[in-house]
Amino acid sequence: MTRWVPDELGDGYEQHTIPLGDDPDGEGVVEATLVRRAAPEDVRAAVIYVHGFSDYFFQKEMADFFAERGFAFYALDLRKCGRSRRDGQTGHYVSDLALYDAELDAALEIVREETAGVPVLLSAHSTGGLIVPLWLDRLNRRPGGTRGAGVSGVVLNSPWFDLQGKPWMRTVGTQVIGLVAKVRPTAMMKLPATDAYGTSLHVSGHGEWEFNTVFKPLNGFPVAYGWLTAVRRGHARLHRGLDIGVPSLVLRSTKSRFARAWSPEVDEADAVLDVKQIARWAGCLGDAVTVVPVDKARHDVFISKAEPREAAYAAVDAWMRAQGITS
Fold first, then answer.
1. Using one digit for the tens of pLDDT, what is the confidence trace for 89-115?
2. Measured in Å, how far apart are the chain's first and last C-alpha atoms?
3. Which residues form the Serine aminopeptidase S33 domain (predicted)?
4. Would the pTM of this model clear 0.85, i.e. be above it?
């Protein structure tokens, strides 16, 4: 039996720990955490949300949006992330993105059991928007495929489809990162410090959102060579073309704005990823892909300012109706 205990988000939210055994990367025992919102009386579908790097689930407004449409809402904090990180573990570190298949498989199984087999929608942000399609591609190659596993579609919110920055970082730079990762995988890269995006979100800075800054630091977690190498391998797999087996909706901002310190422009652009790369690689998902640029959206379109946020939710609503996921 799945054991649920109260979650830090308060009334109506519970969490369940998913044991994953010994860490293949040698950092002790690893666990993931599945969070659920109190379900509506008439559950017509379910959704599982997966966060990005330096992130975890806290977006109660998103959960309310889906619950109002008859969804049982769940969110997964991946191993070494958010609620799932344990003492002595390197935040968000994995040497292979396929390691996340274990908690994704387990979460899907739990959700299917709890919701009597209703269709399940996946939703993912940023790095989660890379992890989930790679998993769905592997799931689709199993007997019955993605549809047979009960998945009806996926919503990707600013998915990380390629490495941002200068072109040389995607060629020579990636090769150098891979060489360092072979000998010092958990060594941290020396990157310019920035809290521009974090302070644009949090109430202590220029934003309107409350979240746990231990789980989601305003300046982000440091980036390990081994982790970024795993991401680059994931990018290469995506670029060769996936077949996730279900329709997808890709949401992104209309522009990027990279900065080390906050300015008003950071509030109305993707301050983390290059939106042109998202547009370029979206077609590699396979099946039917719908891409919706959201004007003035932040990197996480669902915690943008009110107008773009409403536009993003309207796009999700329209897409789900068009796909027959909701009526």
1. 999 999 999 999 999 999 999 999 999
2. 32
3. 42-254
4. yes
